[in-house]
Amino acid sequence: MKFIDEAIIEITAGAGGNGCVSFRREKYVPRGGPDGGDGGNGGSVAFIGNPHMTTLLDYKYRKHWSSERGGNGSGNNRHGKNGKDLIIPVPLGTEVIDNDTGRVLADITGADRPSLIMGPGRGGRGNAHFVGPTNQVPREAESGALPRTMIVRLSLKVMAEVGIIGYPNAGKSTLITRISRARPKIADYPFTTLSPNLGVVRFSNDMDFVAADIPGIIEGAHEGVGLGIRFLKHVERTRLLIHIIDCDPENGRNPYDDYITLNRELSSYNEQLAEKPQIVAAGKIDIAGAREKFDVLKEALKGLSIDIFPISAMNGEGVTALLGETARRLSILRLSETRNADLSAE
Ligand SMILES: Nc1nc2c(ncn2[C@@H]2O[C@H](COP(=O)(O)OP(=O)(O)OP(=O)(O)O)[C@@H](O)[C@H]2O)c(=O)[nH]1
Ligand SMILES: [Mg+2]
């Protein structure tokens, strides 16, 4: 299914029903008291996470979403029917943004409780409400609230704790294929991967995490070169990054330059991304001559206290050590996050 991570839709909260003007009809009483019922409320509009959805494709096709309007009140004090609420399902990780102001109205990360964006449209009161000592024959009733419309932008940022980044062809998809059940296309040319691939990594009985294989990034990506940097938003939620550097001696590249360039692209996108903890993986170490390239990289990174792991995603060499370090760092990051959350709750 096509991966769509941005969509703009119009949402409408249905009008409230109108109140009614009516008078009781009784035998021998020419005009009874007022008995006009209230209008029903218009439905509200909310969003909810759906764990089975992975794309915003539905919202590319259907642009207008509306809850039901409330029914009008009627005689005999009959209340109009409340309009049905609209609950719009979106993939977990979708932000709902007010398109006019850019304000994030909701960040849908769970599937348990809908996030209300527009409350119910108030139904108008019927004339029965307006009777009083000076107004025995009220001929007025309220109209229901008008329908409200809003343009919202949906922006999906995948929910993964670990992001796998690197130049095109570095072996990102090969790695996620080795460590999870994700099966993205792997091929010996750049930009094979055109959208993020998620995979659950079961490291041990009590440690698993979701990793995302992110489409390749090249120099100038922040100016739109290659696939650009629009996929970088998908690493915003991650706790740490695995940065793969291709050590194939035949690729004509300098691994240290690749490391620096990619990090520069990260910080052009967002300084916080560049500051995310990173584990460096020197990839394709199985190829003859790759070790030498790895040694050069290791030497260049010396003194920067950067973890660097030689791996072959192809034959699995070094992958357990890489995952072990990933799991270790993740559990520390998870703990410190819980602790910070506890502190701020105090
Ligand atoms: N020898 C060797 N080849 C590898 C290794 N990892 C990946 N490759 C090969 O390198 C090529 C690119 O691998 P991918 O996993 O598709 O690379 P990618 O980083 O996902 O590339 P993009 O999706 O284009 O960004 C493929 O031909 C892989 O078979 C490795 O560890 N050793
Ligand atoms: Mg790929």
Largest sheet: spatial strand order: 10-11-9-12-13-14
Please mark out the parts with pLDDT under 50 across 5 or more consecutive residues, or reply none: none
CATH superfamily caption of the largest domain = P-loop containing nucleotide triphosphate hydrolases
Write down the secondary-structure element order: EEHEEEEEEEHEEEHHEHEH
Sheet/helix structural class: alpha/beta
Distance between the termini: 45 Å
Proportion of β residues? 15-25%
Topology:
Elements: E1 6-13, E2 45-49, H1 58-61, E3 64-66, E4 86-90, E5 94-98, E6 104-108, E7 115-118, E8 148-156, E9 162-166, H2 172-179, E10 197-204, E11 207-213, E12 240-246, H3 255-269, H4 271-274, E13 278-283, H5 290-301, E14 308-310, H6 319-345
Parallel strand pairs: 1-3, 2-4, 9-11, 9-12, 12-13, 13-14
Antiparallel strand pairs: 1-8, 2-7, 5-6, 5-8, 10-11
The structure holds guanosine-5'-triphosphate (GTP) and magnesium ion.
Magnesium ion (MG) is lined by residues 172-173, 184, 192-193, 213.
